[in-house]
Amino acid sequence: MQKLIPIVLLFTLIIPFKAGADEIIKKDESLNLERCIEIALKKHPNIIAALSTVDISQSKIGQAKANYYPQLNWLSGYSKLSSVSGTRSQFSSSSDHSFDEYSSNVTLSQNIFDFGKTATNVKIQRFNLDSSRSDLENVTDQIIFNVKQAYYGVLQAKRNRDVAAETMKQFELHLEQAKGFFKVGTKPKFDVTKAEVDLSNAKLNLIKAGNALRVARVTLNNTMGITVAPDYYVIDNLTFKKYEIEFVKALEMAYSNRPDLRSVIAKKEAAGESIELVKKDYYPSLSGNASYNWSGTKVTSLDNGWSIGATLTFPIFSGFLTQYQVEESKANLNVLKANEESLRQGVFLEVQQAYLNLQDAEERIPTAELAVRQAEENLDIANGRYAAGVGNPIEVTDAQVAYTSAKTSYIQALYDYKVAQSSLEKAMGVK
Q: For residue 152, with 0-12 CB atoms within 10 Å meaning exposed, 13-18 middle and 19 or more buried, which class applies?
């Protein structure tokens, strides 16, 4: 239970749920990952829905316990009665043969013994409460992962936009060089035209990168549970830091921590108790009751009486209803057992995929970093050759494209590693 998200903490986080995004995020505020997650836990409607489901399960425990307590009812009534035409009522001698009748009744009933049916029902509802709490934690984990993925997506898009802006500036400088060489007659018009085309393509790529960044920000806002937010900055933490864990350990943690697995186990336990609950319909139940009654034709002079007793109810034949209900409950239990096994297999697959993706990204990062250095060196050589008059524009373009591609691949590798790490943490049920 200590691994569950504290419910009180979550209630504290959602108190400002009705506040607007401009109140929870200040203009030009710098947001780190932890701050984005905090906002999501305050604002995301799925958290509110999951918390309300926990409240429902809590209420059902109280409903199940209600059968432990006595039941008290008050009944009052008034009737206007008419005797059969031509006869005189014992209550009235008037010619219209009608009279008023008043009645009141107080009834007290108490379940005495039901072979543990109430206790079993309470136990079932407690399992359902455990399941709903695990579902709340699972929703929280999914939201946290979505925020992480969107957060790193913004960082990736921002870096890609910066690369596109840098590329455009490089082509602007190259165009100025080509124009200068053409003006003094050392380079043909082709160089100028080629540089202009390269610059136009770079501007188009910058426009696309800028739009990708805007889309990434919208996605981040959505994962935080907000629709409109003031301008804010996202702190860049897209750096490589090796995540040390072995696959066997990761799998053990997943089987131990996963809230969705705990949820289905709790549902399975509840289904097992449901079989016992239905079987108790084969047994009798004993209840006590007492009542006090008033009745008469005048409110001021009512006759009264009372009764007290006990009732033993023994089911003899119900058309095989209980038998079929037991069979249904057993089938439900088999479904949940199969769901648990299917989920365990899914957990294994999810952990394995995230672990392999993490290794893949880890292996790509140093190679991609080396490729950036090599591409940068190659670009410097190409620019130097062109400035010295011995190179050609195609060399410069190819070197610039290779450098841009290398930086983009490096950014992609960093993003993939961060997302793979987040996926592995979610797969393990680690906060």
A: buried
